[in-house]
Design a protein that fits this description.
Blueprint lengths: L1 E4 L24 H6 L4 H7 L3 H11 L11 H9 L7 E6 L8 H8 L1 H14 L4 E7 L3 H16 L8 E6 L8 H8 L43 E5 H13 L1 H4 L10 E8 L5 E6 L4 H7 L9 E6 L6 E2 L9 H6 L8 E6 L4 H15 L5 H18 L5 H13 L8 H15 L1 H9 L13 E5 L2 E4 L16
Parallel strand pairs: 2-3, 2-5, 3-4, 6-10
Antiparallel strand pairs: 1-7, 6-7, 8-9, 8-10, 11-12
Bound molecules: flavin mononucleotide (FMN) and iron/sulfur cluster.
């Protein structure tokens, strides 16, 4: 059953049963949030022992909405039980996945529930500080969060755990959790080796076993891991509701393995692009229909969940939007940001566009990733323009097998998943390009979203001029 669309999207199908995350309209003040039942989750959590809070989240079956669907309770327990003197909690609001705008919609609609979720998480993992990280370009979200933090601070509600708002760069890797911690520490978004629960914030003597600078105050041991929790905005937005209404309530929605709702973004060749909240398990087809379906006279050909998972083809649109449903279809739910392509789109151009994005955004710390995505992109470029040969197809296949070698992060796995799936699902498109130029020469810009309101989506067209060294071409 569909729940709600974002403010400005098409009318919700079931207005009597609005999505509990997006709500019917933006929440304008802490007072209004309280009147809607806000803050009850935090009050309850603070009356409970941290381990009991984690047990409640585990019982709810909540899974991370940042892409991997990792069980939230398990993650919280590993941070809390991770030793070390200082723990930290971080809300990942970098939202850089193409075709995804749900975290920004949530921060605009209700910054209070995101902050409340972060404070509950901080209590559960016994964090001494909490961080909210968003892109510097997210002006409406920064304004909403700043306003909410000021109101919450004025009431002394964050006194035991200070919350800091950090703004970061445009790079895709900013949202990768190990790079996110680097940005919070004032560095470039280059992923570290170890995950945040093993190598957290402000570690003075990291995994290499030597210290380049003095220990931070309060640390006198050699190695302190500072286990740090990183959760996505939507994951944390669910938390106050689970604490306030209970894990059994949460499990009345969705499926046994994927309880709750998911906030989807739908863009591309679709009548009304929008952000909408649906119960997990809702068939993708139903979501597409509620976005007005395909453009007149066209039919759906392919759907990508961001740039992270294998393509879904037109015959797979009945796939339920749940972690297990998407996995059974050979793909993944990811961050539920769907880029839809109809029968006017060329699948070779789609592969080139995704591969170029990942090549440009790869940081180059791992050679097979940067060079592999680069060589695949070059070969796809030649194929798209009709200059390609069988050697290019062979080169793509061979590079896909090694692009993930020694990878610090998941980015090259995304390259392998998306490009290999397009080769497999659309062999005739690739074969046609060996005979001449593209029969459907339509550019497919990477759907990196700048704004999405009132059924209108704005993509970041500057991305097309971004170069592999993270500078931009002139003109
Ligand atoms: C290249 C890359 C980019 C990512 N970007 C984001 C992002 O913008 N926002 C996000 O929440 N997670 C992003 N992730 C996933 C995070 O690393 C991390 O898994 C997530 O924030 C964990 O939160 P969750 O457990 O609540 O899902 C990205 C991962 C990769 C590999
Ligand atoms: S795998 Fe690629 S993007 Fe990730 S750290 Fe290595 S080079 Fe950078």
């Amino acid at each position: 059953m569909l729940r709600a669309s974002s403010p400005g999207g098409v009318a919700p199908r079931d207005p009597l049963s609005p999505g509990f995350l997006l709500g019917e309209r933006p929440v304008a003040s802490l007072e209004e949030y309280r009147a809607l039942g806000g803050w009850r989750g935090l009050d309850k959590a603070r009356s409970m022992a941290p381990a009991a809070v984690i047990a409640e989240i585990s019982a709810s079956g909540l899974r991370g909405r940042g892409g991997a669907g990792f069980p939230t309770g398990t993650k919280w327990a590993s941070v809390r039980e991770g030793g070390g003197r200082h723990h930290y909690a971080v809300c990942n609001g970098a939202e850089g996945e193409p075709a995804t705008f749900k975290d920004r919609a949530l921060m605009r609609a209700n910054p209070y529930q995101v902050i409340e979720g972060l404070l509950i998480a901080a209590h559960a993992v016994e964090a001494i500080e909490a961080y909210l990280a968003i892109k510097a370009s997210f002006t409406p979200e920064r304004d909403a969060l700043t306003r909410a933090l000021a109101e919450i601070g004025a009431e002394g509600l964050t006194d035991d755990v200070p919350v800091f708002l950090v703004t970061g760069p445009e790079e895709y890797l900013f949202g990768e959790e190990k790079a996110l911690l680097e940005v919070i520490e004032g560095n470039d978004p280059l992923p570290r080796w170890l995950p945040p629960y093993l190598h957290g914030l402000f570690v003075t003597d990291p995994q290499l076993g030597w210290a380049a600078h003095e220990n931070e105050p309060g640390h006198d041991e050699g190695h302190e891991a500072n286990p740090t929790l990183v959760n996505n905005v939507e994951t944390l937005a669910n938390v106050p509701h689970i604490l306030a209404k209970g894990s059994a309530w949460f499990r009345t929605m969705g499926t046994a393995a994927s309880p709750g709702t998911v906030v989807c973004t739908v863009v591309g060749d679709i009548a009304v692009p929008q952000v909408l909240e649906v119960e997990l398990g809702t068939p993708l087809q139903e979501v597409l229909e509620s976005c007005g379906g395909s453009l007149p006279g066209r039919s759906f050909q392919a759907v990508l969940s961001g740039v992270s998972n294998p393509v879904l083809t037109a015959d797979q649109l009945s796939t339920p939007l749940s972690y297990e449903g998407m996995e059974a279809a050979g793909t993944g739910l990811g961050a539920a940001g769907f880029a839809v392509y109809d029968d006017t789109a060329c699948m070779v151009e789609l592969a080139r566009s995704v591969s170029r994005f990942l090549y440009v955004e790869s940081c180059g710390q791992c050679v097979p990733c940067k060079f592999g995505t680069g060589e695949i992109t070059e070969a796809l470029d030649r194929l798209r323009s009709g200059r390609g040969t069988n050697e290019d197809l062979d080169r793509i296949q061979s590079r896909l097998t090694i692009v993930t070698d020694g990878n610090r992060c998941f980015l090259p796995v995304e390259e392998r998943r998306v490009i290999a799936s397009l080769l497999l699902a659309f062999p005739e498109d690739f074969a046609l390009h060996l005979e001449g130029p593209c029969p459907r020469p339509r550019e497919l810009p990477i759907p990196k979203i700048v704004d999405l309101e009132d059924g209108k989506v704005v993509y970041d067209l500057k991305q097309a001029t971004k170069l592999p060294d993270w500078t931009y071409a002139e003109g």
